[in-house]
Specification:
Blueprint (H helix, E strand, L loop, with lengths): L8 H20 L7 H17 L6 E2 L2 E5 L9 E5 L2 E5 L8 E10 L2 E5 L6 E8 L1 E4 L5 E4 L2 E6 L8 E10 L2 E5 L6
Parallel strand pairs: 1-3, 2-4, 3-5, 4-6, 5-11, 6-12, 7-11, 8-12
Antiparallel strand pairs: 7-10, 8-9
Helix pairs in contact: 1-2
């Protein structure tokens, strides 16, 4: 497995927007835009969302599996681009109170598995993607800000708060059960 250094997402989107702008200039002489204006608008919106979100990708271009069995080993932030991030927290014994993590995904998907007895709240931004919670609740769309809590989250003694940013991807909070 090679360690690849990923360019900043803002740079990739800005470069793509410049490229589309050049194509628009070239095609304007012939009066044919072929969807380039739509693509430029979409890239502009994506650039606006990414510039206000915290995208600092740990890895990319592959499948990444992370299993955390002790909350002390839990990173505050997990991010991935161009692939699948699988974060398994089912073996961790969560402390009293709220445990917070941040998950960022671009051009890929993330799946977070948590113990059955730990209710979850997901707060996040989705641009051209979806977020699905345990129990089937799903938020899809273009530029969606969302906050969803599972039943019993507010009164639970142990709970997990996931801040998620999804750009052209999907984040799933898995319904799988883990017995400790």
């Amino acid at each position: 497995q090679a360690d690849l250094v990923l360019p900043p997402v803002e740079g990739v989107l800005a470069g793509a927007l410049i490229f589309v702008g050049v194509l628009l200039l070239i095609s304007s002489r012939h009066g044919m835009h072929g969807g380039l204006i739509t693509l430029a608008v979409l890239l502009s919106v994506a650039l606006a969302v990414v510039s206000r979100a915290d995208f600092d990708f740990d890895t990319g271009f592959s499948e990444r599996d992370v299993t955390v069995t002790r909350v002390e080993d839990l990173d505050g932030s997990y991010s991935h681009a161009f692939g699948q991030l699988n974060l398994d927290l089912r073996g961790a014994a969560f402390p009293e109170g709220t445990t917070e993590i941040t998950v960022s995904v671009a051009f890929g998907s993330a799946q977070v598995r948590v113990p059955k007895d730990v209710p979850v709240r997901v707060e996040g931004d989705t641009l051209f993607g979806s977020t699905q919670l345990r129990g089937g609740a799903q938020v899809d769309g273009f530029g969606v800000d969302t906050a969803r809590s599972e039943a019993g989250y507010a009164t639970a003694s142990k709970r997990l708060l996931i801040h998620v940013t999804t750009l052209f991807g999907r984040k799933v909070h898995s319904p799988e059960v883990h017995e400790r």
